[in-house]
Amino acid sequence: MNNTLIGQIGNTPLVKSMVLNINPNVSLYFKLEGNNPGGSVKDRAAYNMIQNALDTGRIDNTSKLIEATSGNTGIALAMIAGIFKLDIELVMPASATKERVQTMKAYGAKVTLHPDGIEGARDYAMAKVQNEGYYTFNQFANEDNWKAHYKTTGPEIWRDTNGEVTHFVSSMGTTGTIMGTSSYLKEQNENIQIVGVQPKDGSSIPGIRKWPKEYLPKIFDANKVDRTLEVSRDEAIAMTRRLAKEEGILAGMSSGGAITAALKLANELKSGVIVSIICDRGDRYLSSDLFE
After folding, report:
1. What is the mean pLDDT of the chain?
2. pLDDT at 2
3. Which helix (H) or strand (E) holds 98?
4. Could you tell me the keywords of this UniProt record (predicted)?
């Protein structure tokens, strides 16, 4: 048994919906990624990106690292960079919750808040790479992002459903989770349906994006997603609150968005086994109005 902190990344619980899913012929499972040591699904990608960059000599302890993040990837990178004694600057939208900023600083990272959202943060980080010799993992274009889920998330879902999973539902941000999990599950059974979740036009949901064309993640391959469902911010908030009150799962708004889509799907199906990602813990949103 690997009793290091790194060894605790992955193998997260898969728990059955006991309240929200009311279709008796469909099983809906929540994959609790908040149980990772850094509190989100992003621990998987962050570890894979750092470890591979170290193994291939792209970075070492003298490297100046920088990454643009909306939050969870930054926390995961800060935690793992600290373990490996790496210096990292994390650039986040100025709207980031206080808990996220404080958590990254606690792990030893430098935090820069950018007024122009995640796109502005990405531009700022790339300028430092081009002009000041920084190295960025660039999660949006890094193959090690989605490969983390090909190696871990997909196999865990296949194993824990005894190969009976019929639908996989995931919010889409950097798209690493859905790309890697889709790649693995489709190899096991090409009939498994992969459902991506995006915000409706005009809706802002942290962790779920509909990217402008010039910012579309390079790792995204539309052929790996069978269907896209759109949810509104109000739906995502309402479902996040219901998840906490009715299922006992305290999560962030992107998880509420994913479960909104998963329940729409469950209500359509005659039978099936749906797995949906609960991508983080809700305690990092308590200073926001999410649970007010």
Report:
1. 96
2. 81
3. helix 98-106
4. Amino-acid biosynthesis, Cysteine biosynthesis, Pyridoxal phosphate, Transferase
Output the pLDDT for position 65. 98
Residue 262, helix vs strand vs coil: helix
Specify the 3-state DSSP secondary structure of 170: strand
Please report the beta strands in 42-192, taking only residues with DSSP state E, as ranges in sequence order: 64-68, 87-93, 110-114, 135-136, 167-171
Please give the single-letter amino acid code of residue 94. A
The reported pTM is 0.95
CB 238 within 8 A of CB 263: no
Burial of 61 (0-12, 13-18, 19+ CB in 10 A): exposed
Length of the chain: 292
Catalytic residue among 42, 147, 186, 224: 42
Is 254 an annotated catalytic residue?
A: yes
Residue 271 has a CB neighbour count (10 Å cut-off) of 10
CA distance 236 to 151: 29
Which residue among the candidates 182, 254, 255, 276 is catalytic per the annotation?
A: 254
| Rounded-to-integer distance, Cα 103 and Cα 275, Å | 29
What digits encode the pLDDT tens for the residues 165-196?
999 999 999 999 999 999 999 999 999 999 99
Give the pLDDT confidence score for residue 1 in this predicted structure. 56
Query: d(Cα 54, Cα 56) in Å, to the nearest integer?
Result: 6
- The residue written with tokens 């995931």 in the block is 170
**Which of 181, 145, 197, 189 is closest to 14 using CA atoms?**
181
The average pLDDT across 226-244 equals: 98
